[in-house]
Every structure is written in structure tokens, then in C-alpha cells.
Amino acid sequence: MKDNINNTTKKKGAVASSVKVEKRIKSVNNYFDSIRSVIRSVCSKTMAVRVDLQVKGKYQDYITITDVSNSMTKMLNNRRSNKTVFENMIGYVYIIEEGGGNSESNNPHVHFIGLFDGQKLKEDIYKSIQLGEHWSNNIMQGKGKYNSCNANKKNYKDYCLGTLDHKDDKGWDKLKEVSHYLCKDTQEPTDGNSRTRYFKLGVAPKKSKMGRPRKKA
After folding, report:
1. Residue 48, burial from CB neighbour count under 10 angstroms (0-12, 13-18, 19+)
2. 3: number of CA atoms within 13 Å, CB side?
3. What gap in Å lies between CA 110 and CA 54, rounded to an integer?
């Protein structure tokens, strides 16, 4: 009888997890479609960067998942005052996770994808490193580290980061697929804090805030 109850509980948990992941995937697809629709009339290119934001090993035992969540909120809330790093950003998606890797600690970390105006920015590797350095040294005050996926293109079979043309259907579809990795919940924290949002999307920009429509060739 106890085994049946446990099996039923596991099945319900698996179904709930599947539904949550599917909702996230749908929201990411809609979000990227909205961004693409806006930039189509304003700029012809988008620059996509992905950075894994982490905590240095010796600090992982006492920097909590809540600390990392608060740090992400601080970083994004202050982006208007930090134009050097965040100017021309038009969207983002991220997920905060714990565990994984070779560490036995909680290992809190963030998978972050940022979208920028590709007409005004060209160096995607530089921008991803800039984001990582800002996280490591300013937000985490030297206690953070990062991995720039843009700087490690050889590690990815279907590389789709960097500059995307608004007409590049295949490239945008690949970017969505990469972003779906951020929708998983296998390493999502289980700290019982229902108020903390570990998966988050930005707000799609409005045409009026993106500047004048680009001239047609």
C-alpha cells in the first residue's frame, strides 16, 4: 500500500514538473517572437549572448540560493544606471539552479541569456565577458566567477549565439532550442520559498522605446 502511494506521488510530481516546463518553453517562444516582431521594424539584427554566472568554490558553502537570487535582482534592477554593460539590451531570460558540476556544495549558479541591439553592438564575445566580469567583481564583490559560452564556440555543436538577422528563421529556432535548456527544473532549488522566482523573463520592448524605424534598402 505504501509503495502504491509513493508511486502515485512520484507520478503526480512528474506530471506537475512536465506541465511547468512546457509552460516555460511556451513563454520563452512567445517572448522571443515578440522581440523579433519589434526589432523587425527598428533594427535588422539581434546579438545573443549566454553567460553562466557562478560562485567561487570557497564561497559556495555559505552563499545561498537566496543570496544569488537577490544578486540577480540587484544586477538587473540597476541596469539603467550601468549603461556600459547594459545599454542596448532588449531582453533576457535566466534560471537559477543549484548542484551539478563536481562540487559537493550547493553550488548556486545562473544560466543567463541576454539579447542586445545587433545594429549597435558587434562584439558578442566581449559583451559576454563584460557581463561576467560585472557579475564576478561588482555584484558578487570578487566572490563570483563565470563561463562565457560565446567565447567557447567550439564546445557547442549547433552554435546559435552572436549576431542574428531578423530574417534568419533557422537561427532564431536554434536560439529558442538553446533557451529551452533554461526551462528545465531538474536542478531548481527546493528551499520551500514559494515567493522566489528562479526562472525569469524580461519584458519585451515596445517599438516606441527602440527608436525610429530603420530605413528600407
Report:
1. buried
2. 0
3. 6
